[in-house]
Amino acid sequence: MSLSIPATGTESRLLQLGLREDGSLEVPPVQPGSPASWYTGSPTPGERGPAVLLGHVNATGGGEGVFAGLRTLKPGDRLEIAREDGSTAVFSVDRGEQYGKDEFPTLAVYGNTPGAELRLITCDGFDPATGTFDDNYVVYATLSP
Amino acid sequence: MNKKMRLLAVPTLALGALALSTGPAMAHGEDSWSSQATLNTMNNSGTTGQAMVEVHGMEAKVTVNVSGAAETFMDGPFPHAQHIHIAAQGVCPGPDADTDGDGVVNTTEGHPFYGHIGNSLTTEGDTSADSALAVDRFPGGSAYTYERTFELTPETAASLKDGSAVVVVHGVDPALMPAAAAEKMSDLDETLPAAATLPAACGTLAGSQMAAMPEGGADTGVEAAASNGNAAGIAVAGAGVLALGGAAMAFRRRANA
Question: What does pTM read for this prediction?
Fold first, then answer.
C-alpha cells in the first residue's frame, strides 16, 4: 500500500507495523526519507472503521519527516491510498486535533466509526527544554463517496 | 546445488522477518479483545459519554467517560450508579418503553431491553449485582472519568462476546423530569428519590473494529534529533520513557497472572 497527499506533495509507501510489548504503536524508522506506516491491528484503508497511519514529524539529523506537513492540511484536502489490489481509496480531511500524549483520547481516535475513516498521526509539541515531543497531532479523514 | 540453496534461503529469511513483525500483535491473542459503546442520553438528562471494556482473560479494564450528568444531590456530588446490563436484547429502550405513562423510562421499564445487571461499575469493593445501588461507591458529579480493572462474571463475559452487554448510567437532575415523575420514589429502592436511579445514559457495547486497541498516542517524533546540545537531558528523558514502559509491562503481567 502507498499514501499520496497532493496538498503537501507527500508520497510514501506504507510499512505494516503492529504493537510493542507494552501495547503502544510501533513506529517507522527514524532515518531521513523513512516511509509512513499502517497499523496492522486497524482496519485496512477503505474498510469500515478507523485505519491508523503513522509518520514521523522529523528525522535524525533534524530534517523533515514524512508527516512534517500534516499541520497544513485543511478540511476537504484529498488523501489517496493505493491498495494492493490496484484500487485507490480516496479520503477527505475532516479536521486536525492536537492532544497531549498524557491525555490522549483513545476512544475518539481509535474508537468504532460508522464508515471507513483514516487517522494520520504524527508528533507535535516539541519541548526544547527536554528534547521531547509532548503532543500528538491527529488528522481525521473519511472515505469520499 | 549452491544456487538452489541460496534460492531456498531467501523465502525462509522472509518468513522469519514476517513472524517477527507479527509477534507483538499475537501477544494480544484470543483471550484479549475490547468492546466499546457510545452512551446516548436517556430521559432528557443531557448526559452523554463513552465506555470501553478491554478484556484480558477474565479480567477487564473498564473506562467510562461521562459528561452532562446531574451535578449535586443533597449538597454533595450527585452519585451516578453505573452498570453493565446483560443477557436481554442488548439495546437501549426508546421513549415508548414508558409503560406506566409517567413520561420517563425507569430502570425496571428498561429491563426487557438491556437486561439485568451483570456487573456494577463501582469505584471500590464488590462489583457484582449486589452493589447495584451502593451510592457511596459510584462516581459522582456532572462529568467524570472512571477507570477500574476487575474480574468479569462469566455471564457478563458471555454477553460482551455476543453483543448483548449494555452500559447504563443512572441519576438525573429532577428539574429535567416531569414534575409528577420527579416526586416519585425509586422503582428499585423506596428510600431513594426516583431521580437517583433513573437511567441517564445508555449504550450497547460492540466489539472494537481494531484487532487490538493501541495504548495511547504514538512516538512519531525523533527526539534524539533535538539539536539543543543537551545530550544528558535527552538521555534522562529517554530513560524516563523506558522506565514507564517497564512499569506498564510489569502491570500487564500482573494483570494476566
Answer: 0.73
